Amino acid sequence: MGQSEPIKRRARSPEKKKARRQEILDVAHRILTSAGFDQFSMEVLARETGLARASLYRYFSSREEVLLALYQQLRETWKNQLCQKLRPGMTDESFVRAYYKASSLDPIQIQLRSRLESTIKHNINRAVFAEEVRMSQAVLSELIDHLRECTGLSDETCHDLIISFGALLVGASQLDSTPRMERDLLPPGARRTSKALSYQHLFESNGKRILDGLRKEAD
Questions:
Q1: Distance of alpha carbon 144 from alpha carbon 160, whole angstroms
Q2: Would the pLDDT of 218 be above 90?
Q3: pLDDT at 88 over 60
Q4: What span, in angstroms and rounded, lies between the C-alpha atoms of 37 and 115?
Q5: 1-60: which CATH number, 3.40.50.620, 3.40.50.300, 1.10.10.60, 3.90.1150.10?
Q6: What gap in Å lies between CA 67 and CA 45, rounded to an integer?
Q7: CATH 1.10.357.10 residue window(s) in the chain
Q8: Three-point CA angle 52, 29, 49, nearest 5°
Q9: Is residue 206 within 8 Å of residue 164, measured between CB atoms?
Q10: Ranges assigned E (strand) in 117-216
Q11: Where in the chain is the domain with CATH 1.10.10.60?
């Protein structure tokens, strides 16, 4: 990664502070995309933004706070994409496929989601944690309302659907370890096995089963 242009002046106005915070999150996303989570640290983030570490800590008190703020931003984008793609009258197959497409637009969002409960939430202060609980409940409530209109299912069943699909998204993304280009070079038998373990296939096939099961339970 090339070093960004140094930021020499401290942001002072609310507008400039907001822009600076967004710049930090954009650089964090770039680092995670190009170098991965193991290489992500406040030291690397400070270097790539051109900020002194003391300046960086004016915006985020820890590595996990950066990751949480980025996840919250990506989650909001995901929610909006999901609400755009899911419409009343869709078949269950189309619904599951659209859910996958909206959820796979940014792999970093899924990777952050997989670390949310195991790592991130355990390394933030109570106030930040409480705000995350409030925000996540607001997102969940909005999605439940939208999914109820699209599926005809009850609020409780839509809640279970969102939670189940979230776990499936994380699990399927972790099982899919073969890049598409490498998969195309495999022998036919191995290619079929690899395709069966692909992220999209795992999600769509099992997502349909989950939705079928929830509909049967609701009847």
A1: 10
A2: no
A3: yes
A4: 10
A5: 1.10.10.60
A6: 11
A7: 62-218
A8: 20
A9: no
A10: none
A11: 1-60
d(C-alpha 53, C-alpha 46), whole Å: 5
pLDDT tens for each residue of 98-146: 999 999 999 999 999 999 988 999 999 999 999 999 999 999 999 999 9
In the block, tokens 């600076």 appear at 20
- Residue 187 confidence (pLDDT): 52
pLDDT tier at 31, thresholds 50, 70, 90: very high
CATH 1.10.357.10 given to domain 62-218 = yes
φ/ψ (deg, to 5) at 6: -60, 145
- pLDDT bin (cut points 50, 70, 90) of residue 186 is very low
Residue 99: CB atoms within 10 Å: 25
DSSP state of 1: -
